[in-house]
Amino acid sequence: MRVPSVQGADGANAASCRLVSPKAIRDDRPMAEEPRTAEALPPSGMGLAIGCYALWGLTPIYWKAVGEVPAEQALIPRVLWTLALLLVASLVTRQLAEAWRASLRAWLSTLAAAFLLAANWTLFIHAVQSDQVLATSLGYYINPLMSILLGLVVLGERLNRAQTLAVAVAALGVATLTFREGALPWISLLLAASFALYGLIHKLSPQPPLGGLTREMLVLSPFTLGGLAWLATQEQAALIEAPFDEQALLSLSGLVTAAPLLLFHAATRRLPLVAVGMFQYIAPTLTLALATLHYGEPFTPSHAGAFGMVWVGLALFTFDSIRRAAVAARVVQRPSRNAGQE
User: Fold this and answer.
1) Among 286, 291, 264, CA closest to 275
2) Could you state, in order of their start, the residue ranges of all structural domains in the chain?
3) pTM to 2 decimals?
4) Helix (H) / strand (E) containing 138
5) Dist CA 246 CA 183 (whole Å)
6) Minimal CA–CA distance to 27: which of 266, 255, 231?
7) For 247-282, what is each residue's pLDDT tens digit?
8) Residues 190, 191, 197, CA angle at the centre, nearest 5°?
9) Which of 280, 330, 297 shows the shortest CA–CA distance to 131?
């Protein structure tokens, strides 16, 4: 199962923060040529994946730096600058036509996906700015298991024993945290649910990576421009009144958002999806380290129990995915060997 990652995720966000080359974005191998799990992973693919998820995991540092602008207002420059950057990338890679050429159904799917992504982004920024970085980490650990649940409920997919146990253990972890803290971890659950739903829409209505994301920003741009116009009429608006240095920092939000997404799509063309799924845990792990070691957020025994159970669930899910991918690879290789012997 493909698990997109927001922080998908953030849901927004190598190591040098550079965009991938036009060749990397255009490189669209047929599924048959996708590297198998049993083969050695290409260093270029691993570098892209590590860069992508490292950027996503460190994204809270950026949103803390622009903390004077509330989340719902910070979303405006994020959408507009991301759109500008994606339009440039589309021109460079000669994929601009993909952003416009789509059926009515594709545009309706884009509309739903765009609003889910905007909600996810806004909630993530709010969580970071309100000193709840730890909650975002838990949310993105939960996300793959939330995707499994959606596959079960919406797509009618059947879970094997390992997947069922993985979801049950993670759910027990969330329930334990809820009982001990006296409230549901709403931010974690909503982050996981919104991005899992975003991934579900893309599964039901596949879109070209660059063209699809550009369309989503195009759909959101009228709303963000309208919000910007409304803020301009208000007596007080943090985004309008932000000093030049903060406005300059906000202008980087497009790069912070688009760079890891483009790295992610380039990595998925070089690595099997199981490998990409393993790398995705880099992001919430870095975010967890930031929350506890850098920002000093409390990590209580309740958190330790919840995170521990979620990690056990993820370990079961990951090992099961690797096992099934290895079995599938052997099945694919067997006919080719038999053909060679003939």
Assistant:
1) 264
2) 41-232+244-337
3) 0.80
4) helix 133-153
5) 35
6) 266
7) 999 999 999 998 888 788 788 778 776 677 778 888
8) 85
9) 297
